[in-house]
Design goal:
Shape: elongated
Order of helices and strands: HHHEEEEEHEHEHEHEHHEHEHE
Bound molecules: iron/sulfur cluster
CATH class of the largest domain: Alpha Beta
Strand order of the largest sheet: 1-2-3-4-7-8-9-10-11-12
Number of domains: 2
Distance between the termini: 27 Å
Largest sheet: 10 strands, mixed
CATH superfamily of the largest domain: Aldolase class I
């Protein structure tokens, strides 16, 4: 069987399309006040609506009883237009893992996953409809990039989870979102401005934003080096997760085609710079693929590559078990190979974890979000 033709790498979403509705989560508080002014509304309405959205987690106009009944609809359509419609929610782990398929205003489909653990709730969100990075083992990458998501579309995925938790719809009683990981569909740093906007909305104190700690937010990247450097200057010390998947250029060029632009050495150096600047440990993501990148010698090489950039504990490795797909070229490693990989990294003093495979049975684990309606 011949290999499929590689997809072209796409860095920019197609231009000239209709934009998603403008929503208060797209705007800073001063911009919201300006919008109120332009719409001939008192500025304090922008604050009230922000409090409903980010603090009280209310999206039903009927519950916004501090707004004049006659103006509610106008206020809500100005500041809180509907951004997405849930098409389907699949549950696993007795309801504590929930994957939602969303339809955006233009019909684009994206997915988010809520995962509740004892003591924390993580939302995995999409940042693009599709993805242009063309990693051959990834379901999302196979469909190419449709478009970038807006800041509010990204934030709304988290808020939808926050509202479900607040209403007690997720087993375990009412709760809050404690962590957000940008590991759903898309390459977050290829939609840089909207993603940074979303990070700010999530971490701005209420009612301007959701008031989360930046420590609870993880932005992943396949290694867009200039954007990794730019992230340092934003002053929001989110955790950076670098999807490395191979320690050598030869294999990484194949698994993560952006590597042909930014080599392993450049990418890991940029990750180390990020760790130095923020004093936050970088997470190296490594999807374990049977017979492809899981050999013991590659574990040794990975340790060499990481040690070349210093040993102060700037990094840890997170191994991601792929879905077992018998017969596929991209399938899960043998558990013994996985254990040996971990052992070799740890023997070299590199903290290593194996990601739990939450959501596997609902295709919610990384590299599986393909957003199909079928
Ligand atoms: S692995 Fe990530 S960056 Fe690569 S194609 Fe999939 S979603 Fe895009």
């Amino acid at each position: 069987m011949s290999e499929p033709t590689p997809l072209p790498l796409v860095f920019d979403a197609p231009k000239g399309r209709a934009k998603p509705p403008r929503h208060l989560a797209d705007l800073t508080m001063p911009e919201r006040l300006e919008l109120a002014n332009e719409a001939g509304l008192p500025a304090f309405r922008a604050r009230q609506l922000s409090a409903h959205y980010f603090q009280r987690l209310v999206d039903d106009p009927e519950q916004m009883t501090d707004l004049p009944a006659g103006q509610r609809d106008e206020l809500v359509s100005t500041f809180l237009p509907q951004l997405m419609t849930p098409l389907r929610t699949l549950e696993a782990d007795r309801g504590t893992t929930r994957k939602t398929l969303w339809k955006l205003f233009d019909g684009a489909l994206v997915e988010s996953v809520l995962m509740r653990y004892p003591g924390r709730v993580t939302m995995c969100v999409s940042s693009q409809a599709g993805c242009g990075m063309a990693c051959p083992f990834c379901a999302t990458g196979q469909g190419g990039l449709q478009r970038n998501m807006s800041t509010a579309e990204i934030v709304e995925q988290v808020l939808a989870g926050a509202r479900a938790l607040d209403r007690g719809e997720v087993p375990g009683g009412p709760g809050r979102v404690s962590n957000v990981v940008f590991m759903g569909m898309g390459e977050p740093l290829a939609n840089y401005k909207a993603v940074i906007g979303a990070v700010r909305r999530l971490t701005d104190p209420a009612p301007d934003g959701l008031g989360m700690s930046a420590r609870g937010v993880t932005v992943s990247t396949v290694g867009l080096v200039p954007r990794m450097r730019q992230l340092v200057d934003e002053g929001v010390p989110v955790t950076l997760a670098l999807s490395l998947h191979a320690p050598d250029d030869e294999l990484r060029n194949e698994l993560v085609p952006i590597n042909t632009r930014f080599s392993v050495a450049e990418t890991v150096a940029a990750a180390r710079e990020y760790a130095d600047a923020t004093r936050r440990r970088v997470s190296i993501e490594y999807a374990m693929m049977r017979g492809i990148n899981d050999q013991a010698w590659r574990a040794d090489l990975l340790a060499d590559v990481l040690h070349e950039h210093g040993t102060w504990g700037w990094v840890h490795v997170n191994l991601i078990p792929l879905n077992p797909t018998p017969g596929s070229k991209w399938t899960a490693s043998d558990p013994a190979d996985e254990r040996e990989f971990v052992r070799r990294l740890e023997a070299r003093g590199i903290p290593t974890t194996v990601r739990d495979t939450r959501g596997r049975e609902i295709d919610g684990a990384c590299g599986q979000l393909a957003a199909t309606e079928g």
